[in-house]
């Protein structure tokens, strides 16, 4: 399918004779590759559907029974679906590079564009462009679901749970942060996949990175290590951006997102260096 | 004229029975060295992480927990602490009282250690605070007994031998609505009665206590279990503090028939220890036939989970926590066992050799299921048996269970691994692409596990995760029963919303449904 895409590109815009590629050409090439495989559309749709569905299910079974004291963070609760949606984003990002390796397309790509760093940068840019709308739709859907359903589950204003609204500073931060979180997860997955190259192995590695930290914290009894994992794990740190009730956070919200950004940058850098010094 | 015979292969046609297919799939599996290594690594991971990295034990005890745990007549670990006002009962007889009130106090700031002052106590009666009459073999903890009691919120109950609870008259006791309680002994048979007015008596239950013989102790008691700060929904988040409580019962019209002539009432805190003794006001006083008794503790089976007793307890499944890590690896292998066929076009050869596609799917499921079960079984057995020994060597009291429960946890967890891998094969067949299949199987198992097992989301969500998603099968690791008459912090990883085999059945249902869909798609789609 990738090779079809490539020939399509060739037909649409014959390369100029000078064969100098600008960044825009590179972006267009990557965009064409992504656009012409059917998976992309499906995965984008799946991100939004899965995220909103998981959030809705979680909200629908959460309850604040009369009489009991409830300490839920309703914003965070409504954004629970991000935990599921990130897996689809990661899959999309992994496919963006590993499908080139599994079909051998990568050799064509590098023949046409020998500056490999630039190829990875173009892939990252196109991926960001794809993830952003999916993330925005997902987050908006989650918050809307929370706004509609939560009061009916006992989380009413009378009990101290204001209706979810972007006018509320921390909720706005959580919403914007969750969009950025998904973008960064996509970039992290792209970086890891560039390092690993094999599609199934890359998927396993990336999802391991995403989901291991929460399980490990429950598993490791030592509180010092628990705190370390929470502070420096990509997802546990990144998801603190969703906290709106304060309390004892292992790391500040923006600091947590910065930790994830460092993970993503490190993965992309390592991937880029390996691309450069390894045979394709 | 000669006729040339057409070419006939001299090779005999291979038989295509189901077991030939299973053998073929087994060959495919065993010749992939990476898969074999990964599967073995997965089960080794379960043991290595589970046995050596688990930091178990009750951190609130700080080494000051009580080492010896009494066991009841049924062999289960019990709490047996109450204030007892007693007289010996040499043979048959009965004890009757009227209960006028039951009140309680607890220390709001909690804390396990240190003396408690009466000044700091807050008035609050626990739902399962108890006061009433009891006939017991003796004051040794774990003795056979039967008791009639009024409780904080659950009306009159008859309880015996720690685990059994029978409801009597409903409603709360008060001066205007007192409760009459009576226990009669005839040999080893105890009959409990209750009454609202002392004239119309209702029989609550008749029980045979095999441990009851000779002279027994009969009398009045009061006791009150620990209070949990994050009370009392079944899936309270852990981390809430616990604090000791006390209950005071006021009795009159006390009469004992069959007692020794001339003996008097003697009071004693059964199962006393420093912590219980630090509770102020425990004791009794009486004026004629009216008694006021204040007690603390509980007469109940010990439940696992968050520390709610003086004991540092664990369960046989404590060292199975790493099963989720092994499971992740196994489901990835399960998914790839199928998607690898599509990736290399091998599926066309497979289906050409065995055109009945359903049987190919079945053979794959059988192979991966058997491999995971057979390798998982020794891993889970080791984690249970060696793990229990390690727990004990760290001073943890592992709650005793029957061999059937051992078997349930060990074989059930191995079956959980096998079923999960079968479900992964089905998902791999449906999705066909490695990346999507691997992502799908990981999310299907890990996401509900995270949402259910940690404090990511609020109470109630966790309960549903372990009820309706594939991880419901982890219920098979529950080794100690939940008692409705014992207040406790019931929740994963010790307690689950579903019964053990029901939880495994949920995963069976998912695997069966996914296999059905996979079969239909495999038959309809071009390979």
Would you write up a description of this structure?
The complex is a heterodimer of chains A (280) and B (527). With 280 residues, chain A is mainly alpha-helical. Chain A is 74% helix and 0% strand. Chain A has helices spanning 2-12, 23-35, 38-61, 74-78, 82-103, 105-112, 116-149, 169-196, 199-219, 223-232, 234-238, 253-277. In chain A, helix 2 (23-35) crosses helix 7, helix 3 (38-61) packs antiparallel against helix 5 and helix 5 runs antiparallel to helix 7. Helix content of chain B is 35%, strand content 23%. Chain B has helices at 18-30, 33-52, 274-277, 323-343, 346-353, 357-393, 403-431, 434-453, 461-468, 500-524; strands at 78-89, 93-106, 122-123, 130-136, 145-151, 156-160, 164-167, 179-186, 189-195, 202-208, 216-223, 227-228, 242-243, 245-257, 266-270, 283-287, 290-295, 298-301, 313-314, 397-398. In chain B, the strands form four sheets. In chain B, strands 1, 4, 5, 6, 7, 11, 15 and 18 form an eight-stranded antiparallel sheet that branches. Mean pLDDT of chain B is 85; it is low at 110-116 and 230-240. The A-B interface holds A 39, 54, 58, 61-65, 68, 70-72, 77, 80, 83-84, 87-88, 90-91, 94-95, 98, 102, 199-200, 202-204, 207-208, 211, 214-215, 217-222 and B 49, 53-56, 59, 233, 321-322, 324-325, 328, 332, 336, 339, 343, 433-436, 438-439, 442-443, 446-447, 449-451, 453-454, 456-461, 463-464.
What would a concise description of this structure say?
The complex is a heterodimer of chains A (280) and B (527). Helices cover 74% and strands 0% of the residues of chain A. With 280 residues, chain A is mainly alpha-helical.
Tally of distinct domains of chain A? 1
Q: In DSSP terms, counting alpha (H) and pi (I) runs of 4 or more, how many helices of chain A? A: 12
Task: Name the chain pair with the biggest interface and residue counts per chain.
Answer: A-B, 40 and 39 residues
**Helix percentage of chain B:** 25-40%
The residue-averaged pLDDT of chain B reads 85
Mass-distribution shape of chain A? elongated
**Count the helices of chain B. How many?**
10
User: What percentage of amino acids of chain B are in beta strands?
Assistant: 15-25%
Q: Mean of the pLDDT scores of chain A?
A: 85
């Amino acid at each position: 399918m990738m090779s079809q895409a490539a020939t399509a590109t060739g037909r649409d815009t014959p390369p100029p004779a000078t064969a100098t590629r600008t960044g825009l050409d590179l972006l267009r090439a990557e965009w064409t590759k992504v656009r012409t495989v059917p998976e992309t559309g499906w995965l984008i749709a799946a991100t939004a559907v899965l995220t909103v569905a998981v959030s809705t299910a979680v909200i629908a079974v959460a309850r604040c029974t009369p009489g009991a004291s409830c300490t839920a963070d309703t914003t965070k609760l409504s954004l629970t679906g991000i935990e599921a949606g990130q897996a689809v984003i990661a899959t999309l990002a992994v496919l963006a590079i590993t499908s080139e390796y599994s079909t051998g397309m990568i050799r064509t790509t590098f023949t046409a564009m020998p500056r490999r760093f630039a190829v990875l940068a173009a892939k990252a840019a196109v991926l960001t462009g794809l993830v952003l709308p999916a993330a925005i739709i997902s987050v908006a859907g989650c918050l809307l679901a929370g706004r509609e359903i939560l009061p009916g589950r006992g989380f009413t204003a009378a009990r101290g749970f204001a209706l979810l609204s972007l006018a509320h500073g921390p909720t706005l931060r959580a919403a914007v942060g969750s969009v950025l979180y998904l973008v960064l997860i996509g970039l992290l997955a792209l970086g890891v996949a560039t390092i690993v190259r094999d599609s199934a192995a890359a998927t396993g590695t990336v999802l391991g990175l995403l989901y291991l930290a929460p399980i490990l914290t429950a598993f490791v009894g030592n509180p010092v290590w628990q705190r370390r994992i929470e502070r420096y794990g990509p997802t546990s740190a990144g998801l603190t951006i969703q906290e709106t009730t304060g309390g004892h956070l292992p790391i500040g919200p923006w600091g947590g997102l910065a930790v994830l950004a460092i993970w993503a940058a490190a993965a992309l850098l390592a991937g880029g260096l390996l691309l450069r010094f390894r045979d394709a | 004229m000669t006729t040339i015979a057409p070419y006939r292969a001299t090779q005999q046609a291979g038989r295509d029975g189901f077991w030939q297919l299973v053998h073929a799939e087994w060959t495919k599996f065993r010749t992939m060295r990476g898969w074999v290594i990964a599967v073995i690594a997965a089960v080794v991971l379960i043991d290595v992480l589970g046995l050596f990295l688990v930091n178990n034990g009750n951190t609130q005890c700080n080494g000051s927990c009580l080492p010896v745990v009494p066991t009841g007549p049924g062999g289960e670990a019990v709490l047996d602490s109450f204030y007892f006002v007693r007289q010996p009962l040499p043979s048959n007889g009965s004890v009757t009282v009227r209960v006028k009130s039951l009140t309680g106090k607890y220390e709001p700031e909690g804390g396990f250690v240190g003396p408690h002052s009466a000044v700091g106590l807050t008035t609050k009666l626990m739902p399962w605070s108890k006061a009433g009459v009891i006939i017991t073999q003796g004051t040794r903890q774990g003795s056979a007994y039967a008791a009639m009691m009024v409780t904080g919120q659950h009306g009159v109950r008859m309880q015996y031998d720690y685990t059994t609870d029978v409801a009597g008259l409903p409603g709360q006791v008060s001066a205007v609505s007192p409760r009459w309680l009576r226990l009669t002994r005839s040999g080893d048979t105890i009959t409990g009665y209750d009454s609202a007015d002392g004239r119309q008596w209702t029989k609550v239950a008749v029980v045979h206590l095999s441990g009851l013989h000779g002279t027994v102790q009969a009398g009045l008691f009061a006791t009150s279990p620990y209070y949990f700060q994050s009370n009392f929904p079944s899936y309270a988040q852990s981390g809430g503090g616990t604090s000791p409580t006390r209950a005071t019962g006021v009795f009159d019209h006390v009469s004992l028939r069959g007692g020794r002539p001339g003996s008097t009432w003697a009071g004693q805190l059964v199962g006393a220890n420093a912590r219980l003794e630090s509770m102020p006001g425990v004791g009794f006083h009486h004026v004629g036939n009216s008694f006021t008794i204040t007690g603390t503790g509980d007469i109940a089976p010990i439940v696992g989970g968050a520390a709610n007793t003086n004991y540092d307890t664990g369960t046989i499944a404590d060292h199975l926590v790493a099963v989720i890590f092994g499971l992740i690896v196994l489901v990835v292998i399960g998914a790839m066992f199928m998607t690898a066929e599509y990736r290399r076009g091998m599926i066309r050869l497979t289906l050409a050799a065995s055109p009945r596609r359903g049987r190919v799917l079945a053979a794959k499921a059988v192979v991966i299921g058997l491999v995971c079960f057979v390798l998982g079984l020794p891993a889970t057995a080791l984690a249970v048996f060696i793990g229990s020994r390690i727990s004990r060597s760290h001073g943890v009291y592992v709650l005793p269970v029957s061999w059937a429960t051992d078997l349930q946890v060990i074989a059930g967890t191995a079956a959980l691994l096998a079923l999960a891998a079968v479900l992964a094969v089905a998902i791999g067949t449906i999705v066909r692409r490695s990346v999507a299949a691997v992502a799908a199987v990981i999310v299907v198992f890990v996401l509900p596990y995270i949402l259910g097992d940690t404090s990511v989301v609020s109470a109630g969500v966790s309960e549903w995760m372990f009820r309706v998603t594939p991880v419901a099968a982890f219920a098979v690791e529950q080794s100690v029963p939940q008692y409705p008459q014992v207040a406790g912090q019931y929740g994963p990883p010790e307690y689950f919303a579903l019964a053990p085999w029901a939880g495994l059945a949920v995963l069976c249902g998912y695997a069966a449904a996914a296999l059905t869909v996979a079969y239909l798609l495999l038959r309809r789609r071009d390979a």
